[in-house]
Amino acid sequence: MSRPLPPSLVNLELKPDSRVPIYQQLFGQLRGMILNGELASGTRLPATREIAKLIQCSRSTVLLAFEMLMNEGYVEARQGSGTYVVDTVPEDAIGCRSTSAAPDKMPAGVRLSTTASALLDLDIPKSLLPHSRVIFPDVREFPFGTWSALFRSAWKQPEADLLGPHDPMGYLPLRRVIADYLRDIRGLICDPEQIAITSGTSHGLNLLFQLLLSPGDQVVLEDPSAPWMVAKAIACGAQPLFIPVDGEGICLDANSEAASGARLAVVTPSHQFPLGYVLSQRRRTALLNWAQRNDAWIIEDDFDSEFRFAGRPLPPLYTADQSCRVFYMATFSKILIPNIRLGYIVLPPQFVESYSRLRAIVDRYTSLQLQPVVASFIEDGHYASHLRRMRALYEGRQNTLLALAERYLPELLRFEPQDGGMHSVGWLLDSLPHNISAARLADLANKAGIPLSPLSTYCHRFPRPEAVLFGYARYSQGEISYIMQKLADLTGCKGREAG
Amino acid sequence: MSRPLPPSLVNLELKPDSRVPIYQQLFGQLRGMILNGELASGTRLPATREIAKLIQCSRSTVLLAFEMLMNEGYVEARQGSGTYVVDTVPEDAIGCRSTSAAPDKMPAGVRLSTTASALLDLDIPKSLLPHSRVIFPDVREFPFGTWSALFRSAWKQPEADLLGPHDPMGYLPLRRVIADYLRDIRGLICDPEQIAITSGTSHGLNLLFQLLLSPGDQVVLEDPSAPWMVAKAIACGAQPLFIPVDGEGICLDANSEAASGARLAVVTPSHQFPLGYVLSQRRRTALLNWAQRNDAWIIEDDFDSEFRFAGRPLPPLYTADQSCRVFYMATFSKILIPNIRLGYIVLPPQFVESYSRLRAIVDRYTSLQLQPVVASFIEDGHYASHLRRMRALYEGRQNTLLALAERYLPELLRFEPQDGGMHSVGWLLDSLPHNISAARLADLANKAGIPLSPLSTYCHRFPRPEAVLFGYARYSQGEISYIMQKLADLTGCKGREAG
């Protein structure tokens, strides 16, 4: 009586550990096989006891799955003969059979919007897309135990204010904590009402660009700067206007005529990305005057000023702005962990209402789940102590980098010491015998798993001397040593004898 | 010797429970007072012991704060005379004093982009912005204990794959779990590679509109539909084309000529929002044919099909699509909690690469923190059991609503029974003596804290009979009873004697 099993049944894969009951798993998988044609119309299913034996479960489990299949119209019992796959499954009866059951389907082509095409044509190197490849914290040092305990205490029995419909600006207690933090640590005084929680800097920039830039508008970008900044301009139909950066930051004083028609400037005054310079006092004044004179706005991206090793950090540009033209942005991704995707904007007061309404229309609000966790993390002092620890660690790592690059790569790279941050710029030395380019060096390094980026990828209109960016913050001193030696190997550098 | 304290010092507010040390709190607050002018230049600070007495701490704590103020240049010691606020604080020396210290600041006006202005001109009623005011689950029933325990087990000692740079498509294990779920529960077969995790439906629609719609393109929207759908069209410069809905869903068959130039249609086939109808078989065919004929795309928003009380749910439109033109969207917000802001899209295979690159450029990826938690929640069966429990609960609540509206508001509203969902449409009865409008009824109700929305707010070109939408899912039976009686009170309905 026992016939061979339909071959597809050996593909049944049931997980006894799953909390989805076995009969439901069996039902789902058999239905899947019927829908994709592995069990064709008219196929006789094996007896329930054979299947039970095959998948090592009780016969009643299989019976239950069969009953469901029968109820839902996928199989039918034929008197005295067994259970068969029906001729017309329910999906066919209503013309809804899954695509994968249709061998003759004709996939349509891809026709993208003009904006999407323009963005994808930018062909930003994949390695650069996470800005954070260069600016990436050492996540291994993050106090995950504390973090997850704080999550649990926020959500185990959540307060009522965590459950209602939410303010597009974010969770008010977190915004209050941020206002206190900005006052105490950055000398920036603002009302919590001005603070908008975002899903990270990239997301915040999208919102501000959408708020401020009309198609055809010019937007001032630093040169060099992150390549995806250009994408944000294009996404809202704006034209990037590149202004060069020197040791005092963006040269808007010498270029204020050219920029007189621009509506917006995006700048990194505390620590220019990627060169690391601090915007000087006279350049700050020039920038603010430019905005005032041209009725333009400034976005201040303060992405890593917390990691300052020496000297007092300059207060944010925001604090010197007498005419409410500066939007101050910062992120938690660099101090906590990048994948939480949380940042904030301090809005000029006159924009609070329009921003908040726009945010609600565009994408509602940022997930509330982590906002009370970050608030407790700051309020309970974990943020300050983690920051202190990381700052010391990163300072040590920069010192290691400088010393070891000097030892192992003396004729290849000169890393510039910086007062803070998480990455360093390594300038290629002319004396290099085999005259390697930064792009070639980065390529060699990337193939060996070392994330170096050529500075040229960040340069838009103004070429720079050959250099590479290296985010040392994420590597231990031992790892930095390994990387320096590996780079010496890859490039045939001789290095210096240790003293 | 003891002089009166400067009055502003009584505003010092130190939190002994905080883990921020008292001296640091004191430093921050004194600096704040100096910056905002409450402690003016030349003011003599009280002796440390007086402050110590005032704030009840040790004198050494105050000394430490004074030392920091002195080091950072905010106060100076004058020989034998005490400690004074300096004439020029560091922020002034570099021209960066905080705005709030500048009484003469001149806030700039608000000049918005053309897009932002157009969006804000839509003047979408605030009450509607959270779509979820109507479609809102009963979050009190959510198993927060399990949820927060799962978070903790994912993040206490996170796996390595949770810490690296991330795929813009989302966390692969979650996408695998979703693919299994779609196959078993919705009969939708797809590759996990096709699944993109989004920050909710609204966010997912932004991305798809940006991917597919060029300025000037037409997009077919259901009429009625959520008002913010129009905003999404405007945000990318597209023109909404409204097609009416009847008992069989969107009437694209009768309007396919008018829609022949449109690039995209956004539809709710499983449960039309807000009317609740199911797209019939012939209309499904018409819709798919329309897309095929016009080289257009379809977004299927399957926002609440899980809450189906009776009958077998129709499979998604996606499963009947033979030419890969349907983008299938769903959300976790309705079954879990809205504030997690997580959803997903099943992309037609030919769009996986372009979508993924676009997402990386636009806003990188969705916060990874909750993705492993949702994956475990589904895999461990909590999702299925919560869904089962909620489905039974909501069915009971709909029955209660129908019965109690019949008892208390017989001459005012007739709620239509639906096979599923989380809300109901209450049609106003002509027989009403005082002839109240739906807008007026909603207004009265909102003032009493009852979220009713007039159907007219969802109608774009085609007026409908007067009706209100009521999201009953979030209310217990007792609360529904209270609400029905309250509405009777507000409108002077007599009601029927209970039998």
From TrEMBL, chains A, B:
Family annotation (CDD domains): AAT_like, WHTH_GntR
User: Which segments constitute the HTH gntR-type domain?
Assistant: 20-88
Q: Give the InterPro entries listed for this entry.
A: HTH_trans_reg/aminotransferase, PyrdxlP-dep_Trfase, PyrdxlP-dep_Trfase_major, Tscrpt_reg_HTH_GntR, WH-like_DNA-bd_sf, WH_DNA-bd_sf
Keyword set, alphabetical order: DNA-binding, Pyridoxal phosphate, Transcription, Transcription regulation
Instruction: Tell whether 4Fe-4S is among the UniProt keywords.
Output: no
Question: Which Pfam families does this entry report, sorted A to Z?
Answer: GntR
GO MF annotations for this entry?
Answer: DNA binding; DNA-binding transcription factor activity
Q: Does the keyword DNA-binding apply?
A: yes
Q: Which family does it belong to?
A: In the C-terminal section; belongs to the class-I pyridoxal-phosphate-dependent aminotransferase family.
Q: What is this protein called?
A: GntR family transcriptional regulator
Taxonomic source organism: Sphingomonas oleivorans
